[in-house]
């Protein structure tokens, strides 16, 4: 009969080997929480009360110091015999009584000031001691937070990945991972979307400033028709220069937004006419003034058209941003719920290993049913922030400012009407035709096949773009 050595026991699992450390951590945290719950709120209230008392006593001491200073001045003036009170007392024959009264009032003020100083010093000492105790409790509060982080790290180290001994924990972990993936997919477009929205808003503000400056130049151009004032000419040129600078700033913002999202359409012309101050002064007559006014009105017309399109783009961008933020917040809430359920299940398992009772973990959250999908790809859903109608159709409605007369402008050399305007021909205006190319007034959706899908949801794009027509 052969000898069979005794079999070695199987090595302890990761859960079994970590139960002791887990028990020490949760016991320490429980003791700290009990101490903090019993003392921290009372200590915070006590410190706040002492701070109020110190403030009140300091204000009282300041008033007493002013009173002491005043009483000392009156007593010294009475004692010198040179003050008005001293001279009046001597004339009335009661100088000695007045002097004794002033000195007594001064001594009383000094005594009250000293008492207040001592009381303030005592309150400050008590406040220092109470603050030290409060800082100790807050240090323990921070220690409890660090221990909780250690517990979370311990649970993650023990249960991360497949755990054949606890398949129910794997279900919670899979749900948490799925919720986290959806949260990332719903949030990765937000930084670019926010930046594009900010740039479009800045461009709108700059273009609004350009329109106001050009309206001012148009008013000065009207006045210049009936005057030869150099001041009016300078104001007109300054208005055009200011409008050009603001329009250039708006174009810079639009170019930056288009670099992040190449599908941002061209909003129209931002050109502002450029006058010549020397020529306007040297050849100042009613015909050149009317010619400059017509050029200003044409630029104002173009800026108003562009502002109308840009206003629609800003509104559309705000809608896209709001939807993405809402989806990201919903996905974050689902992920937090799944992570809390996973932690509760892990705590339940560890408590069972320790032989302790505790609350049961909630059921595995249905992440696939409750979590919102990430943003759909461009052009899939027209309801997800379709471009404004004026961009889709190529039309440019007027919004405020200068409204151009119907019909095209007259040919060069036509006789102007009074007030420096021009007389348009009768009939309906022609339809607007956007410039050729991809930068016209029409939005062109991206070409090519739709992005691949994963996990039942479209893959997130590296940057957002205005969706085209479905």
Describe the structure concisely for a colleague.
66% of the residues lie in helices and 1% in strands. It has ten helices and two strands; from the N terminus they run ααααααααααββ.
Protein described:
The protein has 470 residues and is an all-alpha fold. The chain has two domains: 14-160, Helix Hairpins (Orthogonal Bundle), CATH 1.10.287; 183-423, no CATH class. It has ten helices and two strands; from the N terminus they run ααααααααααββ. The protein has a two-stranded antiparallel sheet. α1 packs across α8 (286-354), α2 (84-92) packs antiparallel against α3 and α5 runs antiparallel to α6. The model is unreliable at 6-10, 369-386 and 392-470 (pLDDT under 50). Keywords: Coiled coil. Residues 378-402, 412-425, 434-445 have a biased composition (Low complexity).
């Amino acid at each position: 009969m052969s000898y069979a050595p005794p079999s070695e026991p199987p090595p302890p699992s990761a859960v079994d080997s970590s139960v002791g450390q887990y028990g020490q951590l949760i016991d320490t945290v429980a003791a700290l929480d009990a101490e903090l719950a019993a003392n921290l709120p009372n200590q915070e209230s006590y410190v706040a009360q002492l701070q109020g008392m110190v403030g009140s006593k300091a204000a009282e001491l300041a008033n007493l110091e002013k009173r002491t200073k005043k009483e000392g001045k009156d007593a010294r003036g009475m004692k010198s015999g040179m003050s008005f009170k001293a001279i009046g007392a001597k004339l009335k024959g009661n100088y000695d009584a007045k002097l004794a009264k002033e000195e007594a009032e001064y001594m009383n003020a000094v005594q009250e000031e000293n008492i207040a100083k001592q009381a303030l010093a005592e309150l400050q000492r008590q406040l220092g001691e109470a603050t030290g105790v409060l800082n100790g409790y807050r240090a323990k509060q921070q220690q409890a937070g660090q221990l909780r982080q250690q517990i979370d790290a311990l649970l993650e180290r023990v249960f991360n990945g497949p755990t054949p001994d606890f398949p129910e924990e794997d279900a919670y972990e899979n749900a948490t991972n799925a919720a986290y993936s959806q949260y990332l997919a719903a949030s990765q477009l937000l930084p670019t979307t926010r930046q594009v929205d900010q740039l479009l808003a800045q461009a709108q503000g700059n273009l609004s400033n350009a329109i106001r400056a050009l309206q001012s130049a148009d008013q000065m151009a009207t006045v210049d028709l009936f005057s030869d004032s150099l001041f009016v000419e300078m104001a007109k040129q300054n208005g055009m220069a200011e409008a050009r600078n603001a329009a250039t700033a708006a174009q810079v913002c639009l170019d930056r937004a288009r670099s992040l999202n190449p599908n941002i359409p061209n909003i129209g012309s931002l050109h502002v006419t450029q006058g010549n101050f020397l020529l306007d002064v040297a050849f100042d007559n009613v015909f050149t003034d009317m010619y400059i006014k017509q050029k200003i009105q044409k630029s104002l017309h173009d800026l108003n058209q562009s502002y109308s399109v840009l206003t629609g783009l800003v509104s559309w961008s705000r809608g896209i941003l709001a939807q993405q933020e809402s989806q990201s917040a919903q996905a974050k809430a689902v992920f937090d719920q799944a992570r809390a359920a996973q932690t509760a299940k892990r705590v339940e398992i560890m408590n069972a290993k320790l032989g302790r009772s505790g609350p049961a973990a909630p059921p595995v959250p249905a992440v696939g049913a409750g979590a919102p999908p990430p943003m759909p790809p461009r052009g899939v859903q027209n309801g997800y922030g379709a471009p404004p109608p004026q961009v889709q159709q190529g039309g440019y409605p007027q919004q405020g400012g200068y409204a151009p007369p119907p019909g095209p402008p007259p040919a060069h050399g036509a006789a102007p009407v009074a007030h420096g305007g021009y007389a348009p021909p009768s009939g309906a205006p022609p339809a607007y035709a956007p410039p050729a190319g991809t930068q016209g007034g029409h939005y062109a959706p991206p070409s090519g096949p739709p992005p691949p899908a994963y996990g039942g949801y479209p893959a997130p794009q590296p940057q957002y773009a205005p969706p085209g027509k479905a």
